[in-house]
TrEMBL record, chain A:
Its EC number is 2.1.2.10. One of its GO terms (molecular function) is transaminase activity. InterPro entries: GcvT, GcvT/YgfZ/DmdA, GcvT/YgfZ_C, GcvT_C, GCVT_N, TrmE/GcvT-like. GO terms for cellular component: glycine cleavage complex. This is aminomethyltransferase. It is an enzyme of class 2 (transferase). Keywords: Aminotransferase, Methyltransferase, Transferase. It catalyses: N(6)-[(R)-S(8)-aminomethyldihydrolipoyl]-L-lysyl-[protein] + (6S)-5,6,7,8-tetrahydrofolate = N(6)-[(R)-dihydrolipoyl]-L-lysyl-[protein] + (6R)-5,10-methylene-5,6,7,8-tetrahydrofolate + NH4(+). GO terms for biological process: glycine catabolic process; methylation. It comes from Boseongicola aestuarii. NCBIfam families: gcvT, PRK00389.1, PRK13579.1.
Automatic annotation (TrEMBL), chain B:
The gene is gcvH. CDD domains: GCS_H (cd06848). GO terms for biological process: glycine decarboxylation via glycine cleavage system; protein lipoylation. The modification N6-lipoyllysine is found at residue 57. It holds the Pfam family GCV_H. Residues 16-98 form the Lipoyl-binding domain. HAMAP family: GcvH (MF_00272). This is Glycine cleavage system H protein. PROSITE patterns: BIOTINYL_LIPOYL (PS50968). NCBIfam families: gcvH, PRK01202.1. Belongs to the GcvH family. It comes from the Bacteria. The lineage of its organism: Bacteria, Pseudomonadati, Pseudomonadota, Alphaproteobacteria, Rhodobacterales. InterPro entries: Biotin_lipoyl (IPR000089), GCV_H (IPR002930), GCV_H/Fam206 (IPR033753), GCV_H_sub (IPR017453), Single_hybrid_motif (IPR011053). The glycine cleavage system catalyzes the degradation of glycine. The H protein shuttles the methylamine group of glycine from the P protein to the T protein.
Length: 354, 119
């Protein structure tokens, strides 16, 4: 167990990081992510569209276009165009449901209250746990308890009753696998998890495996790969910014840092987050400096051994001139320069159910 | 068998000393994913950092337990670092040393003393 954002979290269960990782890729892994923040945003008008428009003033994402029963990735930006947090936003019919990072949840809620209190009620949910069930056998496992989840598609959200409890389910996750994230009353969480891990396909998975799983999937970790000093374009997150919010779009700009972010969307940024594959076996971890010849051109922000790839994987920032896939650079590990190659992410095909 | 405070074991085999890491150390490290070994025929002094071992959790060094010369390294660990978890006290030895002054080993712990230390 280790302290993490004020919570005691398991790095690994008895199986160990490697076996837990491979089990998630082969079968199904259960993650306790209850430390994450859950927030309901409800417009005072009662119309979910008004909540969407209000939240659009804080994120460069089109939320008005988010249909009922769907979820979308978003970013809180600051006036400098940096990223305050990344989050998921779901349209649950008469309100928006937000899931934010544990380490940022207090500041996120303060941020929401400071800017949206006039038009919206902001309610932090503290009596619900959050668990993720991930992997190719996640659907069969969860459907054995809640049959309706099998019909959901990637990024769908829906509510289901299970044994007297109401589950808020999304078909999403942080591993590159098909799977679900399930919010449920804390009082029912242990019972629910025990039912899942009693299934042959399901094992509990710790933070250690979660990190390499998301890294292989090319997913960034707030605080490591993106933060207030990185813009969405530097972070290679343009895909999260829909046309409606870009220059010439129906609701162009109107979010913090729009000047910089809109400019970078058109002209690019001076550096970029890229996938990096060290060519040897030595992992290149966060902080590893990256060189092109004698010139320092970037640094690694996340790095580990990738159990699925059976090779080290990293991501980090390099000067844009060196960000083309296939570019061979060098990472300095313990005083030695070792080759690493700029690579497309995800490092392996994700298995979402579209 | 002798043990160091850095969780290494030493086994005298004829005129060389075989060195590895203990079962306890391999369990604490978790799954080992990378091993870097010294060059054979290197003279090393006690405490020199001569191997790198990385697990899914962290990177650590292995230091020379005594003064001597590296005469052989276990290249199998480079290709299969997981051997360190499977058989740390046997197959997964790291290197063999030629040690002039075998009395250096007298100062190291025996099995009971090591077990007391990790308890």
């Amino acid at each position: 167990m280790v302290p993490f954002a004020g919570y005691e979290m398991p790095v690994q269960y008895p199986a160990g990081v490697m076996k837990e990782h491979l089990h998630t890729r082969d079968a199904a892994g259960l993650f306790d992510v209850s430390h994450m923040g859950q927030v309901i945003l409800r417009a005072k008008s009662g119309r979910v569209e008004d909540a969407a428009l209000a939240l659009e003033t804080l994120v460069p994402v089109s939320l008005l276009a988010l249909s009922e029963g769907r979820q979308r990735y978003a970013l809180f930006t600051n006036e400098d165009g940096g990223i305050l947090d990344d989050l998921m936003v779901a349209n649950r019919g008469d309100h928006l449901f937000l899931v934010v990072n544990a380490a940022c949840k207090d500041s996120d809620i303060e941020h929401l209250r400071a800017h949206l209190s006039e038009t919206c009620d902001i309610q932090q949910i503290t009596d619900r746990a959050l668990v993720a069930l991930q992997g190719p056998k996640a659907e069969a496992a969860l459907a054995s308890l809640v049959p309706g989840v099998a019909a959901m598609k990637f990024m769908d959200v829906a509510s289901f009753d299970w044994d007297g409890s109401t589950l808020w389910v999304s078909r999403s996750g942080y591993t590159g696998e098909d799977g679900y994230e399930i919010s449920l009353p804390s009082v029912d969480a242990a019972r629910f998890c025990e039912r899942l891990v009693a299934l042959d396909a399901v094992e509990p998975i710790g933070l250690g495996a979660r990190d390499a799983l998301r890294l292989e999937a090319g997913l960034c970790l707030y605080g490591s790969d993106i933060d207030t000093t990185t813009s969405p374009v530097e972070g290679a997150l343009e895909w999260a910014i829909q046309k409606a919010r870009r220059r010439g779009g129906e609701r162009e700009g109107g979010f913090p840092g729009a000047d910089r972010i809109l400019k970078e969307l058109e002209h690019g940024a001076s550096r970029r987050r890229v996938g990096l594959l060290p060519e040897g076996r030595a992992p290149m971890r966060a902080g590893t400096e990256i060189f092109a010849g004698d010139q320092k051109v970037g640094h690694v922000t996340s790095g580990a051994f990738g159990p699925t790839l059976q090779a080290p994987v990293s991501m980090g920032y390099v000067d844009s001139a060196y960000s083309t896939t296939g570019t061979v650079l060098e990472g300095e590990v313990r005083g030695k320069r070792l080759p690493l190659r700029v690579a497309d992410m995800p490092f392996r095909q994700s298995n979402y159910k579209r | 068998m002798k043990y160091t405070e850095d969780h290494e074991w030493l086994r005298v085999d004829g005129d060389v000393v075989v060195v590895g890491i203990t079962e306890h150390a391999s369990t604490q490290l978790g799954d080992v994913v990378f091993v870097e070994l010294p060059e054979p025929e290197t003279q090393v002094a006690t405490g020199d950092e001569i191997c790198v071992i990385e697990s899914v959790k962290a990177a650590s060094d292995i230091v020379a337990p005594v003064d001597g010369e590296i005469v052989e390294v276990n290249d199998a660990l480079v290709d299969n670092p997981g051997l360190v978890n499977e058989d740390p006290m046997g197959e997964a030895w790291f290197f063999k040393m030629k040690v002039e002054d075998m009395s250096q080993l007298d100062a190291l712990m025996d099995e009971d003393a090591y077990n007391d230390m990790i308890d």
